[in-house]
Amino acid sequence: MKKAFILAGMALSSIAFSAHADTVRFGIDGNYPPFAKQGADGKLQGFDVDIAYALCSAMKASCEIVPQDWDGLIPALNANKFDAILSSMSITDERKKAVDFTNKYYNTPSRMIAKTGTTVSQASFKGKKVGVLRASTQEKFAKDFWGKNGATVVSYGKAPEGFLDLKSGRIDGMFVDSVVGETDFLKSAQGKGFAFVGADYSDSKYFGYGAGIAVKKGNKALQDRLNQAIAQIRKDGSYKKVQDKYFNFNVYGN
């Protein structure tokens, strides 16, 4: 019992420290431009990275960016590799079982990218392949919406890998966050002949309530601190300054 008490005390101390430490460590997947990508200097850059630094400035804390592949983000958070996940992670009821979330810091719909003129319905990809990012909200939706209607859902560890297969014809569509699809594929040379097809998808059952910052379960002190910082950068113009660097629309959403 004494040992369990000591360990519990250490865990609580760790939570308190991460919430009030001079440095806040953010885990970010660097394979998701324009939200995050590796720069020429080897460091991560993008909307999520700049938001992290804006939040740290608001909290008067130093900021540390920890690169982490997408499907390992939650396990790494729970292993104390970093204090919070700031990596375009949608707030969903399923993820809330594993982590706690701040309020949203942006919200964009998901879309299908395929050859221009492709018709999209639940049955339109029967016998075909749809690419998604592994462990994403898009993956879960695609398996229910197209996978149960005869499509093969192909999951990738990194979105650019899916775009390469789409261009080469190894898959027939890539279902992604609309901003990522436009920036990382459609606006590039390899996107010629492809387009967003079908409707926007934003069903909260799958896609949640916008992208939030994840913290360990029970770390309310850091959760509250980040929520206050989100509200502050929205109010003082810091958020808009970052937004306008990457987008020509309101990425925060309604």
UniProtKB/TrEMBL annotation:
Q: Where is the Solute-binding protein family 3/N-terminal domain?
A: 23-250
Spell out the InterPro entries in the cross-references: ArgE/DapE_CS, Solute-binding_3/MltF_N
SMART domains under this entry?
A: PBPb
A Pfam match: SBP_bac_3
Annotated keywords: Hydrolase, Signal
Signal peptide range equals: 1-21
The UniProt entry, under PROSITE patterns, shows: ARGE_DAPE_CPG2_1
Look up keyword Signal and say if it applies. Answer: yes
Which domain of life does the protein's organism represent? Bacteria
Work out whether the entry's keyword set contains Hydrolase: yes
Q: Which PANTHER family match?
A: ARGININE-BINDING EXTRACELLULAR PROTEIN ARTP, MEMBRANE-BOUND LYTIC MUREIN TRANSGLYCOSYLASE F
UniProt-recorded name of the protein:
ABC transporter substrate-binding protein
